[in-house]
Amino acid sequence: MGLIIRSSSIHAAGCYTTTPIRKGARIVEYTGPRITKESADAKYENSPTTYLFGVGNGDMVIDGHGTAMFLNHSCDPNCETREIRGRIWIQALRDIAAGEELTYDYHLYDGDEDEALCNCGQAACRGTMYAPEEIARRKKLAQKTAKKSRHRKPAAHRQKTKAHE
């Protein structure tokens, strides 16, 4: 299977196929050193770009090296990832024509919101690379935080009330 890395309209560089790929085919493995999530957080604390891929329950990540790290995110991808015996494989979701950019849905689950803006350009773009479950979790947390702050009395008001007691 021929894969090339070249400029992408989604983000910087992307991975493209030079040959047709059939639906279900394993395309490439996501490879690189395996490190703890904590080590990765420390290593990339001030870096706007990482190529980390969570493995298993997310305590370990692959610090991406190689061809697969160039697959960009899309909200309407032509590939998906599969964890098979601890290895991460990129597989075709549908038949892919020669020349197409290979993409998968990153389903991010942590990080800063500003760093996860989606540029896929698809009609069904959700505007973020976060997983729908993570979007819902963050929305619920924001609503809960907003509700708590609405129910708190302002500090000055509490002090006044306390002085009158």
CATH architecture: Beta Complex
CATH class: Mainly Beta
The biggest beta sheet is recorded as: 3 strands, antiparallel
Task: Give the strand line-up of the largest sheet.
Answer: 3-9-8
Radius of gyration: 21 Å
The 3D shape can be described as: globular
Secondary structural class: alpha+beta
As residue ranges, the low-confidence spans are 157-165
CATH fold-level topology: Beta-clip-like
Secondary structure: number of strands: 10
The termini sit apart by 78 Å
How many domains, as an integer? 1
Order of helices and strands: EEEEHEEEEEEHH
- Helices, by number, come to 3
Percent strand = 25-35%
| Mean pLDDT over the full residue set | 88
CATH superfamily: SET domain
How much helix is in the residues? Answer: 10-25%
Q: Could you provide a short overview of the structure?
A:
With 165 residues, the protein is of the alpha+beta class. It has helices at 37-43, 132-151, 155-164, and strands at residues 3-7, 13-17, 26-30, 34-36, 52-55, 60-63, 72-73, 79-84, 87-92, 103-104. The radius of gyration is 21 Å and the shape is globular.
Task: List the keywords.
alpha+beta, Beta-clip-like, three-stranded antiparallel beta sheet, 3 helices, globular
Topology (SSEs and partners):
Layout: E1 3-7, E2 13-17, E3 26-30, E4 34-36, H1 37-43, E5 52-55, E6 60-63, E7 72-73, E8 79-84, E9 87-92, E10 103-104, H2 132-151, H3 155-164
Parallel strand pairs: 7-10
Antiparallel strand pairs: 1-2, 3-9, 4-6, 5-6, 8-9
Describe the protein's architecture and organization.
The chain is of the alpha+beta class and 165 residues long. The chain has one domain: SET domain (Beta-clip-like, Beta Complex), CATH 2.170.270.10. It is 22% helix and 25% strand. The protein has three helices and ten strands, in the order ββββαββββββαα. It has helices at residues 37-43, 132-151, 155-164; strands at 3-7, 13-17, 26-30, 34-36, 52-55, 60-63, 72-73, 79-84, 87-92, 103-104. The strands form four sheets. It has a three-stranded antiparallel sheet with strand order 3-9-8, with no helix packed on it. A three-stranded antiparallel sheet has the order 4-6-5. The protein has a two-stranded antiparallel ribbon with strand order 1-2. A hairpin with a 2-residue loop joins strand 8 (79-84) and strand 9. The longest helix is centred in the last third of the chain and has 20 residues, at 132-151. The protein is globular. The N and C termini lie far apart (78 Å). Residues 157-165 have low confidence and may be disordered.
